[in-house]
Amino acid sequence: MRWTKVWLVLACVLVTAPAFNSLCYGKAKEWKDLYDEMVLAFLWHQSADESKALSWQTFNMARDILDEQLRLKPDNGKKPILVTDIDDTLTDSSSYFAGFLGTNDGLNEKRDYIWWDEQPSAPKAGALAFLRYAVNKGVEPFYLTGRTADPKVEQYTHSFLQRLGVPGADPNHIKISNGIKKDQFIRDIVGESNQLLLTVGDKFSDLGVESSNKTDHQLQWLQEHPSQPGITTLLQANPVGGTWDCLSHNVCPHSPDQEYELRQQQRKQMAGDYVPSQDVLTPSPLFSGNQMGQILKWQTESSEHAFISRQVFNRAGLYWKNRKAEKGEAIVIDIDGTLIDLAPFTAMVLLWNTGKKGINLFHHWAKSSPSQRAMPGAREYLELVKSAGGEIFYVTARSTIDEHGKDMRKPLLDSLERAGVPLPADKNHLLMKGDFCIRENCSKAARFENIRMGIVSGAPVNIVQLLGDTLQDIELVGEDLETAANAESTGVLADLGRSRFLLPNPIYIRGWLFRLYQKWYGDNWHEEIDSETLQAGVLKKIQRWNPGVSILE
């Protein structure tokens, strides 16, 4: 009987015929089943510490870009300007889409108009302070949105930006593209009298660098212009939706069943040929696997995630360009989700709905999977550091031995080699879990301290840059982010995008999601709280907007 169940699981993953729906899924899929894949995207976007830190980082980078461009600007009499998108760039609009959870509803004009009239003012962290900084520097902001061109919508948008508190939000500086490609609008805004210093958005099309909305064309642009992200263009992280996803914009050209099957096939292709052994096919008690679908899709199929990865590494690389490192200068970089792409492993987790023995599964994958891919821009950044003479310390949470007592250091070195990144200079430049702890403290912060003190390499080290995909990787804690979204970035927040660099990796739920569970339920949540309560808690915490009147009337 047990093997019958295993073969049934295999059939459901490998076969896509609609005839298998009732066998594998119990009933035909509805749109609300697909919306369920967006649950963790909403929660990360609205509540994760890393989401907030990434917003601070983006606007710190934006300040630095303005300063750089103003220094380079010729005295040509042209007015310096910036162009920024509004929704999910300056403000969090995810509650609009979260209102679809549990329903089969989709976008429609009446709902849009009510939202634009009632939209709550929820500024993204660092946005207002950046815009004030720009205005004080003599840079005029233009607000460009893809909303419907209608006098009512123009008034709604003007009123909303005033409630939000953005500077200079008068009708002359608010532009509505109404579906017209933004690159043309941006060219019209610039004209002959303005000089564009910076564009900011949450979608590739917001930047005006590529006229096509097709992801493959945008990825081709990235291949042809790898050094451009983060120089005069910046993207905010938004895994909720975009042109890479038909679901959030109600433009799927097929049925819910077909969309679900398409997503399953994409995950199977991503996971590759690796099939976990039968002993690790155990359901996760901590989350519903399909709720990770949207964040995985964003990280693997969107041009935006690849753009942000390059923008982070390009900004970090500026420190090392055309210079030689001073004695003891070093970087510390995390590996999984920062340097090596973990999406194939996560795709496998979704396919098999595993989690209870997740660390065992990870060890299987780390030793057996032939595909190890460096994050976009990581290889070039590390080569810059190496060429400048900076030391590179790889610090990872991977264990030195697996559950069977087998060495995991060599598989990790093999992974780095397959990813094409510089290998550690020696064994002391690859710190795995358990290496160089301070007594019983094996946290990353403890190991960073041992690097600085010279205990690791034999000489004191000046860590000038930290790079990772969680707060712990860059020596931050959630309390560091408890600052009003409209405040100035000071203290450690001012280091984001300058000496502390964060990569967006919402699929690493053991970081941000488990931290939220701890915040909600206490330190012993994993022992005291059952899976139903955990999953119900996630749904309750998501902020949703619904119109006060029926949009079907």
Strand order of the largest sheet: 3-2-1-4-5
- Backbone CA Rg: 24 Å
Number of H/I helices: 22
Could you name the ranges where pLDDT drops below 50 across 5 or more consecutive residues? 1-23, 278-283
Structural class: alpha/beta
Strand content: 5-15%
Keywords: Signal
Pfam families: Acid_phosphat_B
Signal peptide: 1-21
Protein name: Acid phosphatase
Describe this structure in words.
42% of the residues lie in helices and 10% in strands. With 553 residues, the protein is an alpha/beta fold. Helix 11 links the parallel strand 4 and strand 5. Helix 4 packs across helix 5 and helix 7 packs parallel to helix 9. The longest helix is centred in the first third of the chain and has 24 residues.
What secondary-structure arrangement, pairings included, does this model have?
Blueprint lengths: L1 H13 L6 H5 L5 H5 L3 H9 L1 H24 L6 E6 L9 H5 L10 H10 L8 H10 L3 E6 L5 H14 L9 E3 L5 H9 L3 E8 L13 H10 L8 E3 L20 H16 L21 H9 L1 H15 L11 E5 L9 H10 L5 H11 L9 H11 L2 E9 L9 H11 L10 E4 L10 H10 L8 E7 L31 E3 L6 H13 L3 H4 L2 H11 L12
Parallel strand pairs: 1-2, 1-4, 2-3, 4-5, 6-7, 6-9, 7-8, 9-10
Helix pairs in contact: 4-5, 5-8, 7-9, 12-15, 13-14, 13-15, 14-17
Protein name: Acid phosphatase
Pfam family, one: Acid_phosphat_B
Organism: Parendozoicomonas callyspongiae
